[in-house]
Structure prediction request, 399 residues.
Amino acid sequence: MDIKILGSGCPKCKKLEANVNEALKNTGKTAVVEHVTEYADIASYNIMSTPGLVVDGKVVSAGKVLKPKAIEPLLN
Amino acid sequence: MFGWLNYLVTLLVEKGFKMDVESAWGSSIHFFFYDTVKIIILLGLMVFAISYIRSYFPPERTKKILGKFSGITGNIIASLLGIVTPFCSCSSVPIFIGFVESGIPLSFTFSFLITSPIVNEAAFAVLLASFGWKIAVVYVITGVIVGIVGGIIIGKLHLEKEVEEYVYEKRNGTDYVQEMDAKDRLEFAWDNVKDIIHRVWLFLLIGIGIGALIHGYAPAELLSKYAGPDNPFAVLFAVIVGVPLYSNALGTIPIAEALIAKGVGIGTALSFMMATTALSLPEMILLRKVIKPKLIAAFLIITAIAIVIVGYLFNIWAPFLMA
Prediction:
């Protein structure tokens, strides 16, 4: 599984990344987690609110710091 | 509205600290506790209410609405949407790209970008706490006007070439819009309250602390002589100092409140606040990723001039507003 966090490195984006890692640990799944910080790349996902969460190339959330519990069902 | 709080804090100072509220220390302590509690109550209520409304206006929706307007109406709508659209400095760049790429004129985009940081519910709440509703409402209206005028002037300068080329590239696919139900909206509003209080409490306490000291100790004659409404250079000086200073604007409000009580012009204090929020170095560095130095300079100069004018107008109107 391939997970991308879209955001400029603001505190909220880092929090989301931490929550994603916790969700991965809870579900026992493994994934490559990447932080996309270039604005041109972020814009190519058509989101205007950061942080964004992308799972396998598909945007699943934008402008929200999802809690680990809310991330778990998104990880298939 | 806060008579009960004034009563309780006076009781605390007189019975708890065994001090006279009229004394220098007594009035400083009274100011500190009274302001802290009042600001936190108003801030929490205001942020919660506006955030709930805000959840209906994500930037993607704002973009769609703006696409329908042209001319000055567009600037007015853009400036007004700047109040309600969720906005933190880290999302200003993606919003800028989204607007410009979808063909929204630079003029509207800047009306939005100027108003957004100046007018927000947190500043409104603290102004309400410190100066009452008249000043708070006038602050919002002037903030919106600064955005409208600034955007129109930037539009007239035709600086479209001063935007980085990649911003104009067309992107495939449709916008992702976060779906929300009532429970999500309440959670969004509550998260915002926690987030804002978490971000500003320290600035606020420092600001209230400095304000409290000014309240008890600053020499009123000296301040009103040099920074009073009659000194024509005070506003200019306040803005020049305010631009590079990146404080959380909210922390400056209690200081402004105490300074005004000591005779500093209210316009002078408000333009200082606007300058610290609307124009800051970190914001410029972020914007540099999408616009070139010439447009950044235009944005800076136009907004600064507009804020100076607001300061003078406020100094002239203040006697009528405070009445």
In short: The interface with chain B takes residues 7-8, 10, 12-13, 39-40, 42-50, 52, 59, 61-65 of chain A (CB under 8 Å). The radius of gyration of chain A is 11 Å. The mean pLDDT of chain A is 87.
